[in-house]
UniProtKB/TrEMBL annotation:
Protein name: Cytochrome P450
Ligand binding (heme): C441
Region forming the signal peptide: 1-20
An example molecular function term from Gene Ontology annotations: iron ion binding
C-alpha cells in the first residue's frame, strides 16, 4: 500500500498540473476517481481559486457564470458537473426525468457514514418506503399541531427571554441563537428529546457539537476534487476522518440510547414525536436511527439559515419590517407583548408570508443541490449530460437572475409575491428552494410556519439591528448556507431606535 503522504503529494501535484489522476489502489480498492483533463478558463479558475479575487463566495462566481451563459447552464469539467439556473432544466431534472437523476452513489458515499440508510441519503425502494411513511406522518393533524406547539413553547420560554436578557448587552450572534433554537425544536420533534441548547446560559451540548462537526466534516468531503483523498484518510483513520468517525459515534450512541429507552418504556403509541410514530412501523433499530437522524439534518440548519438570511435582509430594509408590524397589528392587535400568533392568525398575514419567501429567494438555505445522471441525457436547453456525471441546479443563482425575476431581481421586495394583497405562489421550478417534484421537501409547511412564528415574535417585541449591514454576506462551506462570522446584532426594546 503506498504511504499516505505519497498519496497526498501525488494528488496536489496532479491538481497543480491539471493532469488526470493516476488510479491508485488501496487494499485492492480503486479509490481515486479520474478527474478529467481540462485547462479551460472556468476549470483553471476553479482549481487555482482565482475567482476569489473578484467574488466573495463560490456561489457568487457561479451566479456570474450562469448569468453570462445564454442557456443559463455551465460545465465545470474538472468536477464533471453541469450546473444550471434554467427553470426548464430544473423541472426536467427533478420531475420529468426524475428516475434518471437520483442522488447517486457519490452522494451516498459522502453522507453515508452519518446518515446510513436515512431518507436524505436513500434512492429507490428504501427512499420510496420512507417517503410514504414520512409523508403520512408529517401530513397528520396531530403531528403538525405537535410541531407548532414545540415552536411556540421554544419561542415563549426560551427565545424571547434570552433576547430580552441580552438587551443593552452589546452584540449577540443571532445565527448562533437560531441554530440553538432550531436544534432544540427539531430534536424535540424528531426524538422527543430536549437538548436545551437555548437555555439562558447557552449551554454547550455535546450532542449538538458532535452533530455539527459530523455534518460539517461530511460536507467537506464533497469539496475534494477526488473522493480518493477522504477515502484514504478514512481508511487510515487519520485527521478529519478520525474526528468525523468519533463525532458520528457520539451522535449514534445518543440516538441508540433514546431508542432503547423508548422501547423499554413502550410508550410510543401515545407520543407524537417522529421516532415514536415510526416505531410502530419499523422494527430494525439501526434503520430507525438512520431515519430520524436524516430529519435532524434536514430540519436543523435549514431553518436557522433561512431565519439568518431573513433578519439580514430585514435589517437593510426597515420599510419591510414596518409593513410586517402593521399587518400583524391589524390581525393580532397592537400590544408588543403579544408575540405568538395562532395558526389561524398567520393564515391572514399575506405580507409576512411573502417576505419569508422573498428572503429565501435571495438567501436559499440550500444554495445548490446535486444529482447524478444514471444514463446519458439531453437537458431541454440542449445541454448534453453524460451518464454518471453530476448535475446541479442552483437556487442561489436563480434568485439573482434577471431573466427569471426581472430587472429588480437583487432587491428585497415581498410585493413581487402579492396580487391585490394576496400571496401568489411562483412556479416551483423558478423557486426550487424546497426542491420540487417527487422529492420535494417534506418539512416545507412546518419550516415556513416556524420561520413566520419566530419572525413575528422578534419583530413585534424587539428592534433587532445587524451590525455591519454594509458588508456583503460571506458564507462558510457546508451543506447549508451559513454566514461566516455569524450574524452579530444589537437587540433593543421595540421602537427605542426611533424614539432617540
Ligand atoms: C427553510 C427550511 C428548509 C428548506 C429550505 C428545505 C429544503 C429542502 C430541500 C432543497 C430538499 C431536497 C434535498 C434533496 O433531495 O436533494 C429537502 C428535502 C427534505 N426536507 Fe427540507 N428544507 C427545510 C426544512 C425542513 C424541515 C423543518 C424538515 C423536517 C421537519 C425537512 C424535511 C425534509 C426531508 C425529510 C427531506 C427529504 C425528502 C426526500 O428525500 O424525499 N425540511 N428540503
Amino acid at each position: 500500500m503506498p504511504p499516505f503522504s505519497f498519496l497526498l503529494r501525488s494528488l496536489s501535484l496532479s491538481l497543480r498540473l491539471s493532469l488526470s489522476f493516476p488510479a491508485v489502489s488501496l487494499d485492492g480498492a480503486l479509490v481515486l476517481a479520474v478527474a478529467p483533463l481540462c485547462s479551460c478558463d472556468v476549470c483553471a479558475s476553479y482549481l487555482s481559486s482565482s475567482w476569489s479575487s473578484e467574488f466573495p463566495n463560490l456561489c457568487d462566481w457561479y451566479t456570474h457564470l450562469l448569468r453570462s451563459s445564454p442557456t443559463g447552464t455551465i460545465h465545470v469539467h474538472v468536477l464533471r458537473n453541469t450546473i444550471t439556473a434554467n427553470p426548464v432544466n430544473v423541472e426536467h431534472i427533478v420531475r420529468a426525468r426524475f428516475d434518471n437523476y437520483p442522488k447517486g452513489k457519490p452522494f451516498n458515499a459522502i453522507l453515508g457514514d452519518l446518515l446510513g440508510r436515512g431518507i436524505f441519503n436513500a434512492d429507490g425502494e428504501s427512499w420510496r418506503f420512507q417517503r410514504k411513511m414520512a409523508s403520512l406522518e408529517l401530513g397528520s393533524v396531530s403531528v403538525r399541531a405537535y410541531a407548532f406547539d414545540i415552536v411556540r413553547g421554544e419561542i415563549e420560554t426560551r427565545l424571547v427571554p434570552l433576547l430580552a436578557s441580552r438587551m443593552g448587552c452589546g452584540n449577540v450572534d443571532l445565527q448562533d441563537v437560531f441554530r440553538r433554537f432550531s436544534f432544540d425544536s427539531i430534536c424535540k420533534f424528531s426524538f422527543g428529546l430536549d437538548p436545551g441548547c437555548l437555555q439562558l446560559s447557552l449551554p454547550v451540548s455535546s450532542f449538538a457539537l458532535a452533530f455539527d462537526l459530523a455534518s460539517r466534516l461530511s460536507a467537506e468531503r464533497a469539496a475534494h476534487v477526488s473522493h480518493g483523498v477522504w477515502k484514504a484518510k478514512r481508511l487510515l483513520n487519520v485527521g478529519s476522518e478520525r474526528r468525523l468517525r468519533d463525532a458520528i459515534k457520539l451522535v449514534n450512541a445518543l440516538a441508540e440510547e433514546v431508542i432503547r429507552q423508548r422501547r423499554r418504556l413502550g410508550s410510543f403509541a401515545t407520543r407524537n414525536d417522529l421516532l415514536s410514530r415510526f416505531m410502530g412501523t419499523v422494527d430494525d433499530d439501526v434503520y430507525l436511527r438512520d431515519i430520524v437522524i436524516s430529519f435532524l439534518l434536514a430540519g436543523r440548519d435549514t431553518v436557522a439559515s433561512a431565519l439568518t438570511g431573513f433578519f439580514w435582509l430585514l435589517s437593510r430594509n426597515p420599510e419591510v419590517e414596518r409593513l410586517i408590524r402593521g399587518e400583524s397589528d391589524l390581525v393580532m392587535g397592537s400590544s408588543a407583548g403579544d408575540v405568538l400568533a395562532s395558526f389561524e392568525q398567520m393564515q391572514h398575514m399575506h405580507y409576512l408570508h411573502a417576505a419569508v419567501h422573498e428572503s429565501m429567494r435571495l438567501f436559499p438555505p440550500v444554495q445548490f443541490d446535486s444529482k447524478f445522471a444514471s444514463a446519458d441525457d439531453m437537458l431541454p436547453d440542449g445541454t448534453a449530460v453524460g451518464g454518471g456525471t453530476r448535475v446541479t441546479y442552483h437556487p442561489y443563482a436563480m434568485g439573482r437572475m434577471q431573466r427569471i425575476w426581472g430587472p429588480d431581481c437583487l432587491e428585497f421586495r415581498p410585493e413581487r409575491w402579492l396580487q391585490d394583497g394576496v400571496f401568489r405562489p411562483e412556479s416551483l421550478y423558478k423557486f426550487p428552494v424546497f426542491q420540487a417534484g417527487p422529492r420535494a421537501c417534506l418539512g416545507k409547511e412546518m419550516a415556513v410556519v416556524e420561520m413566520k412564528s419566530v419572525a413575528l415574535a422578534l419583530v413585534r417585541r424587539f428592534d433587532v439591528r445587524v451590525v455591519g449591514t454594509d458588508q456583503q454576506a460571506r458564507f462558510s462551506p457546508g451543506l447549508t448556507a451559513t454566514m461566516s462570522g455569524g450574524l452579530p446584532v444589537i437587540v433593543q426594546e421595540r421602537d427605542s431606535i426611533y424614539q432617540k
